[in-house]
Amino acid sequence: MIGFDEKKYLEIGNNTVKLKGRVEEITKEINKDGYKNVFLIGSGGSYAMFLPFEYYMRTKSTISVYAEIAAELMACGHNQLGRDSVCIFTSTSGTTQETVEAAAYCREKGARTICISGNADVPYAKEADYPIINTMDDFSAADADYILLYMLTFSLMHEHGDFPEYEEFCKNLGKLPAALVDVKKQCENKAEAFAEKYKDETYHLLTGAGTVWGETYSYAMCVMEEMQWIRTKSVKAAEFFHGTLELLEKDVSLMVIMGEDELRPQCERVVNFAKKLGFTENLNVFDTADYSLPGVEDKYRRLLSPIVMTAVLDRLSIQLEAKRGHSLDIRRYYKQMEY
Amino acid sequence: MIGFDEKKYLEIGNNTVKLKGRVEEITKEINKDGYKNVFLIGSGGSYAMFLPFEYYMRTKSTISVYAEIAAELMACGHNQLGRDSVCIFTSTSGTTQETVEAAAYCREKGARTICISGNADVPYAKEADYPIINTMDDFSAADADYILLYMLTFSLMHEHGDFPEYEEFCKNLGKLPAALVDVKKQCENKAEAFAEKYKDETYHLLTGAGTVWGETYSYAMCVMEEMQWIRTKSVKAAEFFHGTLELLEKDVSLMVIMGEDELRPQCERVVNFAKKLGFTENLNVFDTADYSLPGVEDKYRRLLSPIVMTAVLDRLSIQLEAKRGHSLDIRRYYKQMEY
Q: How far is Cα B339 from Cα B329, in angstroms, rounded to an integer?
């Protein structure tokens, strides 16, 4: 595969899995001390990555949880944030300004902070109540972050008495790095064909639901818009039918991002709508159900849709970069100027 | 003003204000019985309209509150929804399928339901624990709904001990119907000029924050996309800087939807960014601070941004309809077919 270092990817993923002990040390202590709620706080891609974990905790546990945008939280506050809150942050560099500031803000409010960082040697990690050093880099940040967040949030749910199959689930997480390499290989032809067909397309309509909504939102904004300068609209599948549907015409690229959770039928409804209109020429469904996960038990697939989807969409990014001759690394404005 | 029946608008708005007694009858009873949290449940435009009230309750009271999309809630549930929940819905026709079903779903879960309806004679209103009949119609639905939701949520906050200035605030709400007619007149020239300049524009980038984020989201989706078939991207101002900013070029229409709440500086940051780049030709700021509200005390302006913004944007819709020769009432698919 172009633009992919399999050995390095596996090494980083497998190292993340080894952080299980550190994660449980933290969750056991937090659970013993007691807490009222959990805040998942990020910006852009990291906010989007927290969304499925808000979904899991809200639908598969009794823990009260809120996913929040860092800059908004600091500007207007939140009436449930306080001494009894546990706040979780993640930053590959450990220097993402809004994340660093939000972690300090939450500590000021008396909350406990769990700060996941790719770098131990930054104030963000050093000042955290509970730092977790995950040696991810930009290349594999999303996947390594996902695995850690699965362990962390499902361990919290387990300690809380909500997820008895935690140990077995973690064994399956251990199979993921290799399984995701396999997924990347399985989707390569589809990703390449999409990139070739749409290399000159200037607008894509993306819809997703449930645990893959975060991936839908961030793929549109953080990859297609930020890294490829292509216009997008991302809309939740349920909301698609409350306005955006009127934009659908034969020549519009409609990308449906589909997972295997309870909200899958909402994506299927969009697909069926496009098919009913005969608008299938530019309908592209990215469906986690299309990919096998070697070594992973079927019963856990429904919980793994976002990380499978990120593996698929990462290949799409690499292929778009290649076919469009537009590096994923160039920016017009971000880090090019002060604003 | 074209497309505006001032007498009818004032009559509907003033009738809504008179529902204060009915609202307080409900909130006093609910408060006396006690409750754990409030759910604001809608779809599309009604979901978007609930977002500022989630914001107010989260930042100006200690009430636990969740704004939820009806179809999502029913598909995956919510761990904080139960017998101690108060669920609020609104439907002009009283027959919006997802809203009607979600209200029934919440009653099944044992929650109390407050159902705002433009129509008393529908099961949705009849089966509600607390129906509120607000004689709105499509013409003035948003404004009449807003006034009622202000009374209802701020009365809940008041009964909860969080908003002592409630009675004074309601006196100011009573001035709103006439003040909003004035706002519509004040913004008319700006709306007409925008519609004339952009009548052939095929894509707009909209950003907003805080209490006007709901208006930003729904104006893009429910008006520009649904009623005018124009492509849009709506993005929260804080998130704009995490990807979408790279789309900004001189010829891109950037609409900044700006209110007077705590998140106003996030919109100002977007405006300053565009100005710094010299991209002012297609920068259009819709700012509630530009409009006087005759009879309304200045100290309540910061709480009224979304309803002021909807008055402004309604004029923009009417002007877009006129200049583009595209009726706000035609649909390609919605209610034209089953899906």
A: 19
CATH class of segment(s) A6-173? alpha beta
This prediction has a pTM of 0.97
Q: Which residues of A touch B260 (CB under 8 A)?
A: none
Nearest CA in chain A to B211: A76
Structure tokens at A289: 């159900």
How do residues B123-181 score in pLDDT, each as one tens digit?
999 999 999 999 877 666 678 899 999 999 999 999 999 999 999 999 999 999 999 99
Q: Torsions phi, psi of A40, nearest 5? A: -110, 110
**Element of type H or E holding B151:** helix B141-159
Q: How many whole angstroms separate alpha carbon A211 and alpha carbon A69?
A: 18
* Structure tokens belonging to residue A25: 């040390």
Which of A71, A229, A247 lies closest to B266 in CB terms? A71
- Å between B259 CA and nearest CA of chain A: 14
Task: Name the packing angle between helices B45-60 and B141-159 (round to 10°).
Answer: 30
Supply the ipTM of this predicted assembly: 0.96
Helix (H), strand (E) counts: chain A? 12, 9
Contacts of A248 in chain B (CB under 8 A): 332-333
Question: Which single residue is written with the structure tokens 């809150």?
Answer: A85
Residue ranges per domain, chain A? 6-173, 179-324
User: Sign of dihedral through CA atoms B91, B95, B99, B100?
Assistant: positive
Pair B106, B83: CB distance under 8 Å: no
Top-level class of domain A179-324: alpha beta
Is the distance from CB of B13 to CB of B147 less than 8 angstroms?
A: yes
Residue B243, phi-psi category: left (phi > 0), alpha (psi -120 to 50), beta (remainder): left
Rounded to 10°, the helix A6-17/A166-197 angle is 150
Whole-angstrom distance between the N-terminal and C-terminal Cα of chain B? 37
The size of the A-B interface in CB pairs under 8 A is 186
